[in-house]
Design brief:
By secondary structure, this protein is an alpha/beta fold. It has 18 helices and 14 strands. The chain folds into 2 domains: 194 residues, NAD(P)-binding Rossmann-like Domain (Rossmann fold), CATH 3.40.50.720; 235 residues, NAD(P)-binding Rossmann-like Domain (Rossmann fold, 3-Layer(aba) Sandwich), CATH 3.40.50. The strands form 2 sheets. An 8-stranded mixed sheet has the order 3-2-1-4-5-6-7-8, with helices on both faces. Strands 11-10-9-12-13-14 form a 6-stranded parallel sheet. The relative contact order is 0.09. It binds uridine-5'-diphosphate-xylopyranose (UDX). Uridine-5'-diphosphate-xylopyranose binds next to α9.
Length: 431
């Protein structure tokens, strides 16, 4: 059993903490945001993550998990600390290290003895070394610290599953003490464990996400070509994915990637490379392709509706992907922006996301019942591949709409079936 402190109770920190507690460790979650701590202490998650709520309650009940907003006693009483704070994008594309720096400064202030500090947040190459320097200020500070970089590969919506069943564990460190401690911590997980230096571990995280984003933009660009030559991108993806060197995953064409990781990590990796004089030109295009998709989709709509003025448009899906209420970089929003600009009347549906008052004020109507949302609709746009939309009674939907125009930005429905129901059905590289 280890005593572990996790600093930063976002979805990564909370999931990691709950899973370490489940493994039998004594875990404390620290956050400077009192409201998060109050909520977590009551066993209430403030974000949507399947299965996590129940496990959080279990671990609180058995006493292995606790939460605090008091950094002094938390840092003084722990020797193994994880930093899991956010690293959002700055306007220039670089990662904002404000929260990482303040976590490091907090550790510096209250560190009373030898500590092992693990950076789990996604941080630019060289940041873990900086964390060490920030903590060891002033430079004559003699109490020793050991640092390591241990990237997380959790997907939102399946973060709990991913944390319980990792497919690899990467430990980047120059400290034997930190490496040994992490090896012991991860010993119960039966997956390969790779030990590298700190910078390689930092880069592995960016390169992984950048490669996955590249797969998505690649298939989306090929999908545009499919639209021209009347080929189904789903067939192409299946055919190339059968080559085990390519693999079938992350070849689902559609409106592209969003969320809190891919867009910001691609930008940061590109910026870092650029500033070092080794531009990652391929990634610059990956981002361009991704950004082109909302407009491309609306232009496809315009082939049937040259003007959207006064048209009733139902938008299905607000979250950036299914099984989460996260709307960061969700493609639904630039699409709604464009619809409003075109003076369409927009009705939005999502199984879990609440539309903000800003959007309500701008005239978008939120509707929780998908059948009410499509009533008298001139156009349905699918922006998130929630399984709910697959399970809809589309024959009933067909009867409710005013015009049977169905544009599936996630290529998630059966095109032939939809055509059989007399929908005019279009996806991206798929119709
Ligand atoms: C991602 C990584 O998968 C995870 O390892 C990392 O730690 C954080 O970033 P996440 O952002 O939660 O996780 O979402 P993911 O499921 O990977 O999907 C990212 C985006 O790509 C979503 O917008 C999704 O809709 C899109 N996507 C994914 C596609 O458009 N096509 C695909 O084939 C796969």
């Amino acid at each position: 059993m280890m005593k572990i402190l996790i600093i930063g109770m976002g979805y990564v920190g909370t999931t990691t903490g709950v899973v370490f507690a489940k493994q039998g460790h004594e875990v404390t979650g620290l956050d400077i945001d009192e409201s998060k701590i109050t909520s977590l202490r009551k066993g209430k998650l403030y974000f949507h993550e399947p299965g996590l709520q129940e496990m959080l309650l279990d671990q609180l009940k058995n006493g292995r998990l606790q939460f605090t907003s008091d950094p002094k006693s938390a840092i003084e009483n722990h020797d193994l600390l994880f930093i899991t704070v956010g690293t959002p994008s700055l306007d220039n594309g670089k990662a904002d290290l404000t929260f990482v720096k303040s976590a490091a400064e907090m550790i510096a202030r209250y560190k009373n003895k030898e500590k092992i500090i693990i950076v789990k947040s996604t941080v630019p190459i060289g940041t873990t070394d900086k964390v060490e320097q920030w903590i060891q200020q002033p430079a004559n500070d003699s109490s020793s610290i050991h640092t390591a970089m241990n990237p997380e590969f959790l997907r939102e919506g399946s973060a709990l599953y991913d944390a319980l069943h990792p497919n690899r564990i990467v430990i980047g460190s120059e400290s034997t003490a930190a490496i040994e401690q992490l090896k012991e911590l991860y010993q119960p997980f039966s997956c390969p464990l790779l030990v590298t230096n700190t910078k390689a571990a930092e880069m592995i995280k960016y390169a992984s996400n950048a490669f996955l984003a590249t797969k998505i933009s690649f298939i989306n660009e090929v999908a545009k070509l499919c639209d021209e030559v009347n080929v189904q991108i789903t067939d192409v993806a299946k055919g190339i994915g059968m080559d085990h060197r390519i693999g079938p995953d992350f070849l689902q064409a559609g409106l592209g990637y969003g969320g809190s990781c891919f867009p910001k990590d691609v930008k940061e990796f590109t910026e870092t490379a650029q500033s070092l004089g080794v531009p990652l030109t391929i990634l610059e295009d990956v981002e361009k392709v991704n950004q082109s998709l909302p407009k491309y989709f609306i232009n496809r709509v315009k082939e049937v509706y040259p003007s959207l003025k006064g048209k009733k448009v139902t938008v299905f899906g607000l979250s950036f992907k299914p099984h989460t209420d996260d709307i960061r970089e969700s493609v639904a929003y630039p699409i709604m922006d464009q619809l409003l600009e075109e003076e369409a009347s927009v009705i939005a549906h999502d199984p879990v996301v609440n539309l903000s008052t800003d959007w309500l004020k701008r005239g978008v109507t939120q509707c929780w019942d998908p059948y009410v949302a499509v009533k008298n609709s001139d156009l349905i746009l699918i922006t998130t591949n929630w399984p709910h939309y697959k399970d809809l009674n589309w024959a009933r939907v067909r009867e409710l709409v005013n015009h049977p125009y169905l544009f599936d930005g996630r290529n998630m429905l059966d095109a032939d079936r939809m055509k059989g129901l007399t929908f005019l059905y279009r996806g991206i590289g798929y119709s």
